[in-house]
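tool=predict chain=A
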Amino acid sequence: MTRRRLLGIAADGALILYFLFALFPVAWMVILSLKPANELFSTYFSFSPTLDSYRTVLGAGEDEGVPFVRFFVNSLVVSLGAVGLSLVIGLPAAYAAARWRFRGSENLMFTLLSFRFAPELTVIIPLFVLYQQLGLFDTYVGMIWVLQLVTLPLIVWIMRSYFADLSPELEQAALLDGYTRKQAFFRVALPLVKPGIAAVSLLAFIFAWNNFVFPLILTSSDAQTVTVGALSFLGGDRPKYNLTAAAALVSVVPPLLLALTIQRYLVRGLSFGAVKS
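tool=predict ok
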């Protein structure tokens, strides 16, 4: 066996080991969610699997006083609302940033991007005070508004590269045919970047869905999301790790289903300019 072949086998083995290492937390969560309560703290892999944790989390079993289904619906509402509103604002902004350059435009874009990378804890206290005074605390509107800080810069930055990759001659031809600038945007430019819109929408949804700090500080019960609500099972005298694991796995389902649904657009979109930004 040649040295090159041995190196190839070693590289494959290292990748398999890394894959198993990365997958272990997920596998452990699945095992934990299937364990009965009386075997929760045992270290043996031999146990009688049960779906009681999932029944409890979804409200079909023992009432733990944690409305997880409501938290789940809250996450769907605020995440979809934030992504939808960000697309309405972000797509025209990205198109304008790609087509019209002026002095200071790059500084403006980096300022917008800094909203995404700035630590959320730096703005959470002023936001908490404002939300209390404006009546936005623990409301859908308040959560959708604050999640714009997460999703809007992402959409503008990624979509700008998609619009920049489009040839301006396409829109100029549409203008010569009698289209207005608005019609050229909606009927010519926008349909050509559909894969990018699908890809960036999924990324924005995942970022909004997984956000933890804003729901933790700016909600209490009515608009609380799954990222905070799942931890409610850890309260009390005895933490219920099996319920927490089941809640965490259930909360993964929407982003996973969304990714599988738009997989065709996602692969095409991520390979067409999105990674350039």
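Residues 38 and 212 are 31 Å apart (CA to CA). Residues 3-34 form the longest helix (32 residues).
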